[in-house]
Amino acid sequence: SAASDVYKRQRYYYSKEEGKGLSSLVIGRMTENKDGKIWIATEGGGVNLLDRTSRTIEWPKGISGPSNSLSHNNVKSLYYDEARNTLWIGTHTGGLNKYDIKTGRITLYMHHSGNETSLPSNIIRDIEPYTSDSLIIATQNGICIMEKESGKCRHVLHNLPNGKSLGMVADITLDKNNNLWICLLYTSPSPRDRSL
């Protein structure tokens, strides 16, 4: 039928062997690149790349050495920057990785205690474009606006009235009117008091 032509399904499964499936049993976020390939975040297997034309899954691991590999294989968020052909990779406890797709170079951004221009946390929950030169980063400990080139962050909404804080931000969306929508687990100072 016409419906089955439009909605053809292809299933991909976990495999211990590269080239034969996904590198993890658990997958999360996905994003499409300019060539129509799908970047897939996994929990424990890093990032996979699905070529929908050949129906193959690659396991890109960076070039070689610790400075050119992901900081953590539990990937929570992805953002593909088409203008720069860069994949931003948010990890569970390894901070934020900027992956230059053309060169394979990875740049790591981390939280540094006492440094107000670093990330609020090394657990990166979501990444959204803000301007052509900046991103909004949702973390386990609030939100920041990060300059893409320098990696410097400006923490936002971190000093709320009555000593409250955002805490864990699970997801963010910037709508067409430039309103920032925030999905959070609010625990400070009391889980019963949900007002900001």
Question: If helices are DSSP runs of H or I spanning 4 or more residues, what is the number of helices?
Answer: 1
**Would you report the number of β strands?**
14
Order of helices and strands: HEEEEEEEEEEEEEE
Q: Strands of the biggest beta sheet: in what spatial order?
A: 1-2-3-4
Please identify the structural class as seen in this structure: mainly beta
Distance between the termini: 52 Å
How does the overall form come out from the CA principal axes?
globular
> What kind of sheet is the major sheet?
4 strands, antiparallel
Q: Indicate the low-confidence ranges by residue numbers.
A: 63-68
Q: How confident is the prediction overall: mean pLDDT?
A: 86
The portion of residues assigned to helices is under 10%
Rounded to the nearest angstrom, the radius of gyration is: 18 Å
How large a portion of the residues is in β-strands, by DSSP E? 35-45%
Q: Can you put this structure into words, describing what you see?
A:
- The strands form four sheets. The chain has a four-stranded antiparallel beta sheet with strand order 1-2-3-4, with no helix packed on it. Strands 5-6-7-8 form a four-stranded antiparallel beta sheet, with no helix packed on it.
- The chain has one helix at 2-6; strands at 27-32, 38-42, 47-51, 56-58, 75-81, 86-91, 96-100, 106-109, 124-131, 134-139, 142-147, 153-156, 168-174, 180-185.
- The chain is 3% helix and 40% strand.
- 28% of the residues are buried.
- A hairpin with a 5-residue loop joins strand 1 and strand 2 (38-42).
- With 196 residues, the chain is an all-beta fold.
- It contains one helix and 14 strands, in the order H-E-E-E-E-E-E-E-E-E-E-E-E-E-E.
